[in-house]
Specification:
Blueprint (H helix, E strand, L loop, with lengths): L2 E3 L14 E3 L11 H4 L7 E7 L5 E5 L16 E6 L2 E11 L19 E6 L12 E8 H6 E3 L2 E3 L2 E2 L5 E2 L2 H18 L3 E10 L5 E7 L5 E10 L2 E10 L18 E8 L4 E8 L3 E9 L5 E11 L4
Antiparallel strand pairs: 1-8, 2-3, 3-4, 3-8, 4-7, 5-6, 5-8, 6-7, 9-17, 10-13, 11-12, 13-14, 14-15, 15-16, 17-18, 18-19, 19-20
C-alpha cells in the first residue's frame, strides 16, 4: 500500500535517526520452524525514506555525524524502492545537508531542507496522490529485491454518505467466513471484523478483529488470510473506555495499516505494518509462520510527528 498521510496542520517534527540499518532480528536464534529459518533479517539492507513532492527523489534522513545511518555501510548498496506494491530501481545521488530553513519536520514539503542521503528513481517517478504531507516508502538492497516480490494490496474499507463502512458482496462473504472461523478457534464472541486490505485477486485478505471483552480482558487481532489458512497477530490489552490499545481509542481496536506485502520464491510471506498514533508512526515487519502466527522480525522504525 502507499504510505501517505495527510495532516491538516502539517505538524510533523523530527524522527528517530535509525532510519536505515542492516536489520537486526529481535529473535536471531530462530526456532525450529522452517519458515522462520528461511528469512533472516540481517541478510538484508532495509530503510524507510520520504519522497519529494514530484515523486522523483527519496531521502533517508540523517542530519548529524552522530546519527549517520551510513557510518559502516555504503549508501549505494540501496538499489530499490517499493511503493504501492510496485518495484522502482533507484540510484544514490549524494548527501544533503540540513538547511537553516528546515522546520525540523520530516515531511515531503520539508524534503529540500532536511539532511540525509538522497536517491533518485532511475527511469520513472512515484505515482503519488495529491495533497499529502508526507509519503513514506521502503528502500532495500538488491538481495532483498531479488528474493522477495511485492504484491499490490487494495483498500477494502470504504464509507457511505453517512460514514458507515461498506463492502462489496465478495468481501462481505469473506468477512462472515472469517468471523465464524475465528470465533470457533478462540471460543469467544467477536464484536467486529473489518477487511483492512486484500490482493486484487482475493487470494490474501487482512482483517482487523476485535473480540467481546472478558471482564477487563480485551483482545484485538490482525489476521492475514492466505490459501494455507490464517496467520494471526494477537494484541491483548486491559480494557479502558478511554485508552485501551492506544491513546484515546475509546476501547476500539484498529489494525495497523498495511504498507507493503511480499512473497518469497520459497513461500515465505512478509508484511510491513504501520501503526499511526497521536504523536508518531511506527513501522514493523512481520513474517507469516506455519504455526498460524504473525511474528515480528527485525527492528522497527519510529517517526515522531507531534506538533512543535
Amino acid at each position: 500500500m502507499a504510505c501517505a498521510h495527510k495532516n491538516e496542520d502539517a505538524s510533523r517534527s523530527a524522527i528517530d535517526s535509525s532510519l536505515l540499518t542492516i536489520v537486526d532480528s529481535i529473535n536471531d536464534e530462530h526456532d525450529d520452524n522452517d519458515v522462520a529459518d528461511a528469512f533472516i533479517p540481517s541478510d538484508y539492507l532495509l530503510a524507510i525514506a520520504i519522497s519529494s513532492e514530484d515523486g522523483r527523489r527519496l531521502l533517508v534522513v540523517s542530519e548529524t555525524d552522530e546519527d549517520d545511518v551510513f557510518a559502516d555501510i555504503r549508501p549505494d548498496a540501496v538499489t530499490t524502492c517499493f511503493y504501492n506494491g510496485q518495484l522502482y530501481p533507484v540510484r544514490y545521488v549524494g548527501k544533503q545537508k540540513e538547511s537553516d530553513e528546515s522546520t525540523g519536520r520530516v515531511t515531503t514539503q520539508n524534503f529540500k531542507d532536511l539532511g540525509g542521503y538522497v536517491y533518485e528513481l532511475i527511469s520513472s517517478k512515484l505515482p503519488l496522490e495529491e495533497d499529502n504531507d508526507v509519503y513514506y516508502v521502503l528502500l532495500s538492497d538488491r538481495k532483498f529485491a531479488d528474493d522477495f516480490s511485492p504484491v499490490k494490496m487494495e483498500e477494502y474499507v470504504d464509507q457511505d454518505d453517512e460514514g458507515n463502512i461498506v463492502y462489496d458482496d465478495y468481501a462481505t462473504r469473506r468477512i462472515e467466513q472469517t468471523r465464524g472461523d475465528l470465533a470457533k478457534r478462540y471460543g469467544r464472541k467477536i464484536k467486529t471484523v473489518e477487511a483492512v486490505s486484500a490482493t486484487s485477486d482475493g487470494e490474501y485478505f487482512v482483517y482487523s478483529v476485535q473480540f467481546e471483552n472478558k471482564g477487563t480482558e480485551a483482545l484485538g487481532l490482525v489476521a492475514l488470510e492466505t490459501p494455507d489458512g490464517y496467520s494471526i497477530l494477537e494484541e491483548p490489552a486491559e480494557y479502558d473506555e478511554i485508552s485501551t490499545w492506544r491513546v484515546d481509542d475509546e476501547g476500539y481496536y484498529a489494525a495497523p495499516h498495511v504498507v507493503e506485502f511480499f512473497r518469497k520464491y520459497d513461500g515465505v510471506r512478509l508484511i510491513l505494518l504501520e501503526r499511526i498514533g497521536a504523536e508518531g508512526s511506527n513501522f514493523e515487519f512481520y513474517i507469516s509462520h506455519e504455526d498460524g502466527k504473525l511474528k515480528r522480525y527485525g527492528r522497527d522504525w519510529y517517526f515522531y510527528f507531534a506538533p512543535i
